[in-house]
């Protein structure tokens, strides 16, 4: 038994910290790890010890803004450290590098958390030798290659690997052992092993070539390709003949892959030009039977469909990633681009097409060009959005991402937008409906800001044309979170840092539209400026839509709602309320209104 931590262990820890924090050998200012103090006695923040035998048990270094490289070999090659370390956590930094095969020497590890970094490369097969491992989180990185034989680790309870570039087939895990399992948004393919009902589709979404229960996409009856059948089975030992045969196949495979990659690289540019060509044709003719596109175009598309093409980062990216909806599960890029399409909008952020699919389903495709977001960030945002389950948020059904453009597919909403309802030819919205719409959108937006993702999601482009009426005439917020953060900072609120408050401003403008019935910019007059000037002159009554006055809507409650709107459009973002506060106030106004209706009856 030793009375203090060995010199060598301390030196290695200090070196590891310098490397992982990216401080070129200097200490991170928030952590004080010094050779002349003892990690188990002194102030070594993030280090937890077993005090009985003075050994290092845990290194907890989450969210420290580290931007260096991960050197697991350094930690796991030092015997005393490898023999004691049970928990290593580096979640939420910006660490790059890969996972060294020496990780297999850290045999006592029960938890390895590396989520939310920029780690890349293959996972070493030695990872499967960590027999004590219970929780492994490598989600939100850029790992690629196939999974090592993790199903061999009998005590593994958690495996989180979502949002990487992992591929191959999913090994036959014993899902009943897991309390958390997620491999969504990768490039896995083939049939999902039997999950026995333990996990839902959410754990597997965003892998376009993955099929079978719990995903709604059935696997075709075709026999599995040779390469797939090989990787999905647990190894049973190989004979000499098999080795010879496999190496023959492997050489042939390498030649084919090289050939295909070369071809795809040449054609990638061509593919983007074809999508552009479709857009131009549709734009020129208004409505076009895109089925009539030349056979040359169709061949190009089908070659890329569901195939892997090298993306800007050199990683592989899918053609079309389907996120949700039974009806859209079988949707393919070829079908989408080959279906009859009608251009229905050309906004600041791209063009919008109405498309009729072969199964009769009507979708809209938003095409955004030159959005500087990386494919990785875009994919991550889509993943978060697909999980934003709220009856009044319209989720994207599928997406496509290339460097030049992004496509987003939504369900078509036949009853149009709030903009049309308020400013179209048939103005048919009474006070109760307007107040109901305000309360519903406020509540949905508060959900988006608070409940979705780690820090909430910003809509970024909230306006009445993005509030759509579903088949029950209930409002749904569309196009959530698809505007770039940089754009959001420079939006109407004058470079505000609190970008959520940009949405609050947008919501305030919608309230003003509901109350006044006027356009945001009508006859060159800005609605917000006009309302504020009228209120300043104490002619508040003049603000309200004449049709509301004539139906004797409660002026007191209209004024209350107007006050909320004015607070939302305050020029200073800090002064604007949060959407949660707004939702609460509007709900109270609505409750009073509902009560008054009961009394009237
Ligand atoms: N899923 C949908 N179903 C039905 N109509 C839609 C759908 N999505 C958008 N629209 C309508 O299509 C029209 C064009 O939409 P588009 O998004 O191109 O324009 P915008 O919202 O005015 O501009 P932008 O969003 O680019 O700033 C709008 O009237 C919008 O309400």
Overview of this protein structure:
- By secondary structure, the protein is α/β, with parallel strands linked by helices.
- It folds into three domains: 3-211, Leucine-rich repeat, LRR (right-handed beta-alpha superhelix) (Alpha-Beta Horseshoe), CATH 3.80.10.10; 240-411, Phosphorylase Kinase, domain 1 (2-Layer Sandwich); 418-600, Transferase(Phosphotransferase), domain 1, CATH 1.10.510.
- It is built from 16 helices and 25 strands.
- The strands form six sheets. A seven-stranded mixed β-sheet has the order 1-2-3-4-6-8-10. It has a seven-stranded antiparallel β-sheet with strand order 13-17-18-19-21-20-16. It has a five-stranded parallel β-sheet with strand order 5-7-9-11-12.
- A hairpin with a 3-residue loop joins strand 20 (398-401) and strand 21 (405-411).
- Helix 12 (500-516) runs antiparallel to helix 15.
- It is globular, with a radius of gyration of 28 Å.
- The protein starts with 6 loop residues before the first helix and ends with a helix.
- Mean pLDDT is 78; it is low at 221-252, 264-318 and 485-497.
- It binds adenosine-5'-triphosphate.
- Residues 344-345, 347-350, 352, 364, 410, 412-413, 417, 461, 465-466, 468, 478-479 line the site of adenosine-5'-triphosphate.
Can you give keywords for this protein?
alpha/beta; 3 domains; seven-stranded antiparallel beta sheet; Leucine-rich repeat, LRR (right-handed beta-alpha superhelix); globular; seven-stranded mixed beta sheet; 16 helices; binds adenosine-5'-triphosphate
